[in-house]
Amino acid sequence: MQLIIDTTQTKLEVKNKSFFISNETTERMISPKRISSIAITTHCQVNTAVIKLAANQQIPIYFYNNFGTIQARMCSPHLINLASLRRKQLLFYDQPEATNWVLNTLTQKTLLQIKHLQQLSARKPRHKTAVETASQKMTTYLNKTKTLRNKHLDDVRKKLLGIEGNLSKVYFKHLALFMNGAFSFDKRSRRPATDLFNAGLNYLYGMTYSLVENGIYAKGLDPFAGFFHTDYYRKPSLVFDLIEPVRPLIDKMWIKLILDKKINEEHFIPKEQGYWLSKAGKRMIIPSFNAYQRKRIKVGDNYYSLKNYIYTLSNDLGNLIEASL
Q1: How many CB atoms sit inside 10 A of residue 43's CB?
Q2: What is the pTM for the complete model shown?
């Protein structure tokens, strides 16, 4: 499970080789064997014994901002694999296989998006015709990527960015058909999110980055040496690459929470010309996300937990790099 520290003036210490959490209302002891990661979303006190215990148990510690984005990360050096794979990762960028990998990743993402829209239209049949049209448009855009295969990434990046942008516009335009009331939205918005739908989705994407980054470290890859999202200065571009086929699964989880009425406008607060999740909203979303990590979901012809799917993506990329060089 993920240990979440979201109450101010909380102290995180070590007692009897376990994590000890204390604040004005709580005193709790948790064995490190039960914890997969620690998420800190507010100001608290963490002593060095906690950091050492987490490192010895290979438990990463994440520090989040109010948008759910990781600001800092502490992890054991043992999560880092051999340097030889990272050297090959840099060389892989210039191979045509790198372009094909990016295209395959975009295809995985798009097919999951189409499937998600179709599943929603089965729930609300009045939008079936619109979804069929969207599916055809998205398939047409996807077919345009076939001419980009086996070329250098630098030569096809602009075209690929254009195709990706068009796919996203069609997908979210039709996703919006299924949202109404407090969760109506017109388009994707990030910082700040201009509506409740995007505020919650941004927060979930932010949490997903940590899972993807863990998978990258576990395989021994460099999270800052990406292929498609290479122009993000001081950003983990490979994390942005590998999260793409995971996003539709997070979209699906988020929309189900909304349609099942497990979250409402009271879980948000207006701030800085946009919306943030409130503390109550985070306390609802974070456990739901942790439970979703363990749930078996179908991707293609296989079933995975969300975490295993993410680790499989990293592992497959690492194996591809090894086989190509």
Answers
A1: 10
A2: 0.81
